[in-house]
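FAQ: What does the model actually see?

It sees only this:
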Amino acid sequence: MEIKSKAAGERVENIMVHGLPLVETNMYQLAVNSYCFDALLGLECITMDDRYYNYYEVMQDAGRIRAMIIQYVQEMK
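And it is asked to produce this:
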């Protein structure tokens, strides 16, 4: 089976927010890790003013994605 990727700008389709189509004129909050956030900063797509919340600043190591996943699995087990 051959998998072909789509061109940039054609990869994401049918975005829904709470069951409704994305509205291009609305503002949405998007969760990303620090690596992605730093990349977007470097590309000047965003500024530090766009940052809403930083779990690491608040929770230190417990706010890292892997720690939060471990906690979730332990609580749900």
